[in-house]
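DNA ligase
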Amino acid sequence: MYANGAQSLEEFDAQYPNRPHNHSPTLFFSELTTSLFNSLTNPPATGHAAKLRRPGTKTSDTEQRRHTIERFFSHWRNEVGDDVYPVMRLILPTQDRERGVFRLKEQTIAKLLIKLMKISSRSEDGHSLLNWKVPGKSASSRLAGDFAGRCFEALDKRPLRTDPGDMRIAEVNELLDRLAAAGGESDQLPIFEEFYRRMNPEEVKWLIRIILKQMKIGATERTFLNLWHDDGERLFSVSSSLRHVCWELWSPKIKLEEDKANLNLMQCFQPQLASYSVAVSFEKMVEKLRLPSEDPEFMIEEKLDGERMQLHMMEDDTVPGGYRFGFWSRKAKNYTFLYGESFGDESAALTRHLKGAFDDGVLSCILDGEMIAWDATMQKMLAFGTLKTAALNMQNNPFDKQGWRPLFRAFDCLYLNGHDLTKKPLHARRKALEGYTNKSGNQIPGVIQKQVPGRFEIHPYKLTKSPGDIEPMLRKIVENSSEGLVIKNPHAVYRLNERPVSWIKVKPEYMTEYGENLDCVIIGGYYGSGRRGNMKSSFLCGLRARRADIDAGIAGPETFYSFFKVGGGLTAQDYALIEHRTEGKWRPWNPKAASQYVELAGGDRYFERPDVWIRPSDSIVIEVKAASAEKTASFRVGQTLRFPRFRNIRDDKKWDDGALDMDGWEELESKVEEETKTKKEMEIENRRHTAKRQNRGITVPGEAEFIANVAAKSKLFVGMKFYVPSNVANPKMTKTQLEVVIREHGGTVVQNPARVREGDAVPLADRIDAPRVAAVKKFEGVSIIRPKWVLDSIENDYLLPYETDHLLVATEDMLALAAQNSDQYNDSYCRDVQLEELRSIFAQMSEDGRRPAASHFNKEAFYDQLEAQGHELPRSRGYVFRRCRIHLVAVDGVSELTMARLRSYVSFGNGQVAEELDDEVTHVVIVVGQGDVEDERLLAADVRKQISKRKKLKIPRVVTEGWVGECWKEETRVSEEEYAPV
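Structure:
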């Protein structure tokens, strides 16, 4: 039933005598897929189906999912028994630490299925499976990025069975354990053949998702564990073991004993993580630590670019050296095989070098730290991606004094000689780690009595009371190309599996970007055009409602407000991956169905409505960068990001854990306002300021009134009042006819001109000689709008921004704003022109050569205005480097042809090439051509040193020339992190 390798059931019972025993065979795998997986992933009933429910029975999607899980667990207890572990390891495969690694990627599975189905790899389905990341035109390849979906469509055309499969969950576990132990295709193929023969295509689809550990069922491990038992997630935090949770807490009547909720040796736990800084200043950041007034000191540490690692050590006479080690990553992967299980482990990359490092009085301990790659020759840390290479190098060449090696930096001691220290304050845990001098002047030893340079060290920190000490350390970080800093409250306890504000990350700010990445949830999608037709080309991101509003019942627990649209920075692979992670979760925009989860601006007008929407709990968190923020009525938050750019997907964060919300955004608002006022620090503004004209964005009249007075759906002029003093000449309409048109589209008509003087109504007229119009003209500060604006707005089905032709009489400010909404020939930026208007435009163009141009078209301002209004620019190399000022730095020997090519890319991409490393440079490109890595390293180090000495702490990105080429290839600005010099 448990498929635990070669162990017999008797041996298994002897090893785990207290585990629960089921009274009946496990359920069929088909029951798991239909009653749980499909029920969780299929959208809840809406429309007619929803109306069939009895009054008062409406439940939220979250509650329905919880009920689905509870029903399944109840069914399992009744039909099978109290041992839920066999099915839990299929529901939560990423948390199943007992099963071996499958070593199967999509490409390998595709080849196996092609053989089983006896089709050619060149056939439509064969090609679709092998190229699953590439969207195709046929039905079988429309699900770009969803490999399991591709497999289902191919299998569904040639199934061996269509009825539910006859494999029980225990059998599936047995075969999966055999698959994990399989050595190659010859062993894997028979196992897949058994699955193919005894499962229908939909069941195989879910099986593939289990193998790839990509379930996408809309519920987290926390939900499943806590619905199985109230203490389930708490026990998992200290054990990281599904089996331990399922067998310790097999009955709801069992209460978790306090000592079992503590850390245990050789039992991986879920570590505390650092929170994200959104504070305006270092002073505000330190305030968030909540330091006691009597002792306001805090700690500053360098944030290391490595892999979070926990080190366990205990006495054990059965291993060489008398002490046993265990190493686990943040994701609970066991790395003991790599770093060593004892002092005498001859294959160890680390532990064989640690003899004498621990104090003699240490019998057992658990250290929290970071495993980093260290270059012994250069005496410097290497990038995270080189860590495994460094560890393998040490395994093969353990006494190499010049090569790369793993270095463990310990920054916390969580367990010592049988005592859990997580409830102790950080300063006490640091004393346990490194020792201290007591009041009598005696030296009290710590866990580590002797550091091993370049292999095993205590991570240093600075203790200070002054927030001003953060900046000089941050400048040093810039010079050394390190990741950032972490500030810590030394009085705080250790919180397992949380991101408390007692640890806060601080990172350098980059030119044209916020100092901290913004991690937001995708809540909507927009289909593209051209090459991206019928595919999502941009996404709507939102912020979760304020905690106070959720607690008060004003907003739902899963209510998100629209915030910004993002499409820039996404590569073809990024699109495919997002589609893969969210496949099956998207729903066509329906205000009634979406309103519980997605709130847009504009009331029933639904500003920036997406083509499709997705529940936040079904969605993903993405990391974005932006130039700044600005106020807007187009998004529900009331502000939006200007020029947001995708960076990557944050798999480590969830919609309700780690993503930015309204509370976090409001902490950032003062910083947003400050950056908006100081536009000189934003590279984009350097090109926008002109003496004649300021780009203030498109103004929509009546918008504020409309927002404040939400009325019936689809009524264009709801909330707006109009005064019509006379008949209309063009087009010919009587006063009454125009008033009827206004009322038909939701507007209100007033007859008292005093309402115009009070600013309560918009006057409409196209003749200045009518007596009532002349009277309105005398009102101070009043603009008279032509009826053409009303008719154009109705034609385009939204409130148009004013154009020059829409104004009969206007203030200077109004005329200046209107001039920005059309070009020098009065061709509108915001609507399609009519035939007669087009003739007039062409006539003006033909006269242009005979008279000076009325105005110069500002391409940059036009691009800015389009993006500010949410209109996505199509992919084009013509503006891939827009808003970038790039300084090229080359080593000796780089050909002029290479430099000319890079300059051409930047210039053609609408970027600026800077001859000097000035304060407005956003990117420094290190060019080495055919040079070696050492040339690149030395040149980059010199550049970073120059940057660290600049007065402004905002810094440019330092990248290799490969970044320019990749941006050019993808026709968008890609993330810079992957192209940082060594």
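The first helix runs from residue 9 to 15.
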